[in-house]
Design a protein that fits this description.
With 481 residues, the chain is α/β, with parallel strands linked by helices. It folds into three domains: 80 residues, Ubiquitin-like (UB roll) (Roll), CATH 3.10.20; 232 residues, FAD/NAD(P)-binding domain, CATH 3.50.50; 118 residues, FAD/NAD(P)-binding domain, CATH 3.50.50.60. It has ten helices and 28 strands. A hairpin with a 3-residue loop joins strand 13 and strand 14. Helix 8 packs antiparallel against helix 9. The longest helix is centred in the C-terminal third of the chain and has 18 residues. Bound molecules: flavin-adenine dinucleotide (FAD). The site of flavin-adenine dinucleotide has 39 residues, from helix 2, strand 12, helix 4, helix 5 and helix 8.
C-alpha cells in the first residue's frame, strides 16, 4: 500500500525499523507516524469505542480527534497519527476505556522546563510561520511550537498550484510553499522551534502568558512570553449518516496526509462527499496516486468549487452527482459499500433513487470548523459566525482577541485559505511586536499593506461571505474592516 511512483512527489523514507502490532512485526520507516505505518500494512481498525465496542479507524490524521488512540509501549490514549515510530515500539488496539498498566507508578513530579521569548506562537502552519517570520524580522524573540512532526500545517499535503498574486505564491505548489516558509523560519536565529509539542493550556502570570506544552507525550514544558499568537488551524467536520464511524471513512485532509505526505495509498475505490474545492482537488489527487474515484456526491444543486477544478475532474471521467447525499456506509469492520440517494428541492430523500457504490474509502469533504479550544480556555470572547465556519474568537483588525496580548490568525480565526492565513499571520506577528513596543512604527505600513491585500482577496465571489463574517466580529469590538 506504499506508493512507489507519484507524478509530482518523491517520498524520501527514513531508515527501516520494526514496530510490533499486537505482537506481530510491522515494517515501518523512521519519520513516519505509527498510524501511517499501520495503514501501509493494511491495518484499518485502531481501537474499539468505549460504550458500544464499535471499530474505529483513522479519521483526521492531524491529531485533532480521538479515532486513532492506541496503547503504545503500555501507555494508553496515544494519538498514533502524530506520534512517530521508533524501532521496537509495541502498539496495541485499545478496547473500550483505557486503563493504565498495573505496574504503572505515579510519575515523579518535576518542575517543567521553562522556555522564554517575547512572543509564543502556537501552530506552525502558514499562519503561524508567517507570524513567526514577521515578528522575528520586527525584532522579537519568538518561540514556535507545533504538535505535528513537520512544519507547514495543511500545506505539506497540497500538491496543486495556488491561485492569486505572485507575491502570495501564486503558481507554486502548497508543499513547496511549506518548504519555503520553513526555510525562512529556520534561518532566523531569533526563532526557536519545538515540534511534536502540544499546547495544552494557556495561563496568565502577571504580565506574562504561559503556554503549557507536552513534548513527545513525555516532557512538560512551560513557554513564557508577553504576547501569544494562536494559529492552531481547523478540524474536519463530520455529517450524520448510518455507520459514519466505520474505519475507511476519512476527512479529506487525512487522505491527503496518507498519500501526499507519507506516500501511503488510502484504498482502491473511493466515494467523495462534497464538491467544494477541497473535494474536487482531492478527486484529482487520488487519481494522480492511482486510486479509482467512483463519484462525488454533492447535496447542493450545483458544484461549490471553482469551475476549472470541476471541469478537470469530469474530463477524467468522475461523475459529480449534485442534489445527492450519502445515506449509509456498509461493511463489517471497514467500509465495503456506500449507499447514496437523490434529494428533492426541499432536501427530502426521493424514494427509489438509492445507488450503491462498491468502495473501500469514503472521503468527507464537507468543511472545516476553527480549532478555538485554547482561545476559549484562555477566556477570549467567542462568537458563533456562520460565515467563518462556526465559533471564533472576537478580534480587532490587528487580530488581537478580547484578551490583551493574545492574537489569532489563519483558520482558527475563520475558515478561509492558506493565502489569507499567511496574510493574517503577518498582521498578527507584527501587531504582537508592536504591542510589546519591540517593532518600530515603520512596521505599521506592512500591516496596512497586508490588510489591503486581504480586502482585495475577499472582494471576489468566494471571499464576500467571509468579509461579511468579519464585519460581524469587528462590530463586537467597534472596529472597522
Ligand atoms: C484539501 C485542501 C485543499 C486546500 N487548497 C487550498 C488552496 O488551493 N489554496 C489555499 O490558499 N488554501 C487551500 N486550503 C486551505 C489551507 O490549507 C488552510 O486554510 C491553511 O492551511 C490554514 O493555515 P493555518 O496556519 O491557519 O492552519 P494549519 O495549516 O491547519 O496549521 C495549524 C497548525 O497548528 C498545529 N496545532 C494545532 N493545535 C495545536 C496545539 N494544541 N499545539 C501545537 N500545535 C497545534 C497543527 O499541528 C498545524 O500544524 C486547502 C485545504 C485543504 C484541506
Amino acid at each position: 500500500m506504499r506508493l512507489k511512483y507519484h507524478p509530482i512527489l518523491r517520498f524520501e523514507r527514513g531508515k527501516e525499523v520494526t514496530i510490533y502490532f499486537e505482537g506481530k512485526p510491522v515494517k515501518a520507516y523512521e519519520g513516519e507516524t505509527i498510524a501511517m505505518a499501520l495503514h501501509a500494512a493494511g491495518v484499518r481498525v485502531f481501537d474499539y469505542s468505549v460504550n458500544k465496542n464499535r471499530p474505529r479507524g483513522l479519521f483526521c490524521a492531524i491529531g485533532k480527534c480521538s479515532s486513532c488512540l492506541m496503547i503504545v509501549n503500555g501507555v494508553p490514549n496515544v494519538r498514533t497519527c502524530i506520534t512517530l515510530v521508533e524501532d521496537g515500539m509495541r502498539v496495541e488496539r485499545q478496547k473500550g476505556r483505557a486503563r493504565l498498566p498495573a505496574e504503572a507508578k505515579p510519575p515523579e513530579f518535576r518542575e517543567p522546563k521553562v522556555v522564554s521569548a517575547d512572543i509564543v506562537i502556537i501552530g506552525g502552519g502558514p499562519a503561524g510561520l508567517m507570524a513567526a517570520i514577521n515578528a522575528a524580522d520586527a525584532g522579537a524573540k519568538v518561540v514556535l511550537l507545533d504538535e505535528n512532526p513537520r512544519l507547514g500545517g495543511q500545506l505539506i499535503k497540497q500538491t496543486h498550484k495556488f491561485f492569486g498574486k505572485r507575491e502570495q505564491f501564486a503558481g507554486v505548489r502548497g508543499v513547496e510553499i511549506a518548504r519555503i516558509l520553513e526555510d525562512e523560519a529556520r534561518k532566523r536565529e531569533n526563532i526557536e522551534i519545538f515540534l511534536e509539542t502540544s499546547a495544552v493550556g494557556i495561563f496568565q502570570d502577571g504580565e506574562e502568558k504561559i503556554v503549557l506544552g507536552v513534548r513527545k507525550n513525555k516532557e512538560l514544558l512551560e513557554f513564557r512570553g508577553r504576547a501569544l499568537v494562536v494559529a492552531t488551524g481547523a478540524m474536519e467536520r463530520m455529517i450524520p449518516f448510518e455507520n459514519n464511524d466505520l474505519p475507511g471513512i476519512y476527512g479529506a485532509g487525512a487522505i491527503q496526509t496518507l498519500m501526499n505526505t507519507y506516500g501511503v495509498k488510502p484504498g482502491d475505490r473511493v466515494l467523495i462527499v462534497g464538491a467544494g474545492n477541497v473535494g474536487l482537488i482531492l478527486a484529482y489527487q487520488l487519481i494522480q496516486a492511482g486510486v479509482d474515484v467512483k463519484a462525488i456526491v454533492e447535496a447542493m444543486p450545483k458544484v461549490g468549487g471553482y469551475f476549472v477544478h470541476a471541469a478537470k475532474v469530469r474530463r477524467l471521467g468522475v461523475p459529480i452527482l449534485t442534489r445527492h447525499t450519502i445515506l449509509r456506509a456498509e461493511g463489517k469492520e471497514r467500509v465495503e459499500r456506500a449507499v447514496v440517494a437523490q434529494l428533492d428541492d426541499n432536501w427530502r430523500l426521493i424514494p427509489g433513487t438509492e445507488k450503491t457504490f462498491d468502495v473501500d474509502v469514503i472521503a468527507l469533504a464537507v468543511g472545516l470548523r476553527p480549532s478555538i479550544e485554547l482561545l476559549h480556555q484562555a477566556g477570549c470572547q467567542i462568537k458563533f459566525v456562520r460565515e467563518l465556519g462556526g465559533h471564533v474568537a472576537v478580534r480587532d483588525p490587528w487580530m488581537e482577541t478580547t484578551v490583551r496580548g493574545i492574537f489569532v490568525a489563519g483558520d482558527t480565526a475563520g475558515i478561509e485559505e492558506a493565502t489569507t492565513a499567511m496574510l493574517e499571520g503577518k498582521i498578527a506577528g507584527i501587531a504582537a511586536a508592536l504591542r510589546l513596543g519591540i517593532a518600530n512604527e515603520s512596521w505599521l505600513k506592512e500591516i496596512e499593506k497586508a490588510q489591503r491585500d486581504l480586502d482585495e482577496f475577499r472582494s471576489g465571489p468566494f471571499g464576500k461571505h467571509v468579509a461579511e463574517g468579519i464585519r460581524k466580529l469587528l462590530a463586537e469590538v467597534g472596529g472597522n474592516a
